[in-house]
Design brief:
The chain is of the alpha/beta class and 269 residues long. It has a single domain, classed as Rossmann fold, CATH 3.40.50.300. 35% of the residues lie in helices and 27% in strands. It is built from 10 helices and 12 strands. Strands 6-7-8-3-9-10 form a 6-stranded mixed beta sheet, with helices on both faces. Strands 2-1-4-5 form a 4-stranded antiparallel beta sheet, with helices on one face. It is globular and about 75 Å long. The N and C termini lie far apart (52 Å).
Length: 269
């Protein structure tokens, strides 16, 4: 399958401060890719470069063979949808919030959404399970419900690429599973290419089919979860002792933590 996203020898960041150097990787169309790494490794900087929030100083990012830096904001919004970890909990109904995803398709003199916009918004509210909340205010929803509404709005943009910045970071395990099961379903059923920053290595290993591990502003490792999430890589990057083993059902890698107390007990035996 041809590469859908190509990051070519990219350099970006903040002058006089943190910089990413020589970033190279490719993502196939329809893949579910996770960006992992410790705090300060460069995950968010990489994310902002892909979204265009920060300028690329060297190299480029190609989306379906088009340099993203040449795209207008309007065109980019039709190709890339973004879901952040903090959804706006505003005094706006869920229905109107999701309809905001159609803004890149409005003509210059169009004030209101048309029937097609409403059909699409309803479709994705149904798909994400928030249609029943359509008339509620965003500020009245739980954190998990807000994330589902944000995903519905992103899908209403009809993007080729869905970018998610730690979509489960503030959620309990049941809502984490609900969100990631939904994203996995969208990835498979819509052939939607997904790129997600995620901290939890067990969730990354279970749900993603490709991982990019960042460390100190560089790509430390990339590949399938079983290739990236081994104890040597994790201990070197995260500076902590772990045990990795295979999930008996999914065959994906699972990471087990070892506390300092347990380690000291083993060493003293």
């Amino acid at each position: 399958m041809p590469e859908f996203i190509i990051v070519n020898n990219m350099k970006c960041g903040y002058s006089g401060s943190f910089m990413l150097e020589q970033i190279n990787f490719e993502i196939e169309k329809g893949s579910f890719t996770g960006i992992i790494g410790p705090n300060g490794s460069g995950k968010t900087t990489l994310f902002k470069a892909i979204t265009g929030e920060i300028l690329i100083k060297k190299g480029n990012i190609l989306l379906n063979s088009t340099d993203t830096s040449t795209m207008s904001p309007r065109k980019k919004a039709r190709k890339i949808a973004i879901v952040t970890q903090n959804t706006e909990a505003a005094d706006i109904s869920v229905g109107d919030y999701v309809l905001m995803g159609r803004m890149p398709y409005k003509s210059h003199f169009q004030l209101f959404e048309n029937k097609e916009d409403e059909v699409l918004a309803n479709k994705f509210m149904e798909l994400t399970g928030v249609f029943k909340l359509k008339n509620k205010l965003m500020c009245e929803l739980s954190g998990g419900e807000q994330q589902l509404a944000a995903i519905a709005r992103a899908l209403t943009q009809e993007p080729n690429l869905l970018l998610l910045d730690e979509p489960t970071s503030h959620l309990d395990i049941s809502h984490q599973m609900q969100i990631l099961n939904l994203i996995q379903q969208l990835n498979e059923n819509l052939n939607l290419t997904v790129l997600m920053i995620i901290h939890d290595l067990n969730l990354a290993g279970e749900y993603c089919d490709y991982l990019v591990m960042m460390n100190n502003g560089e790509v430390f490792a990339k590949g399938k979860p079983e290739e990236v999430l081994n104890y040597k890589n994790i201990e070197k990057v995260y500076k902590t002792v772990v045990i990795t083993q295979e999930n008996p059902f999914s065959k994906k890698p699972t990471i087990l933590l070892v506390s300092a107390k347990t380690l000291n007990g083993i060493r003293n035996d």
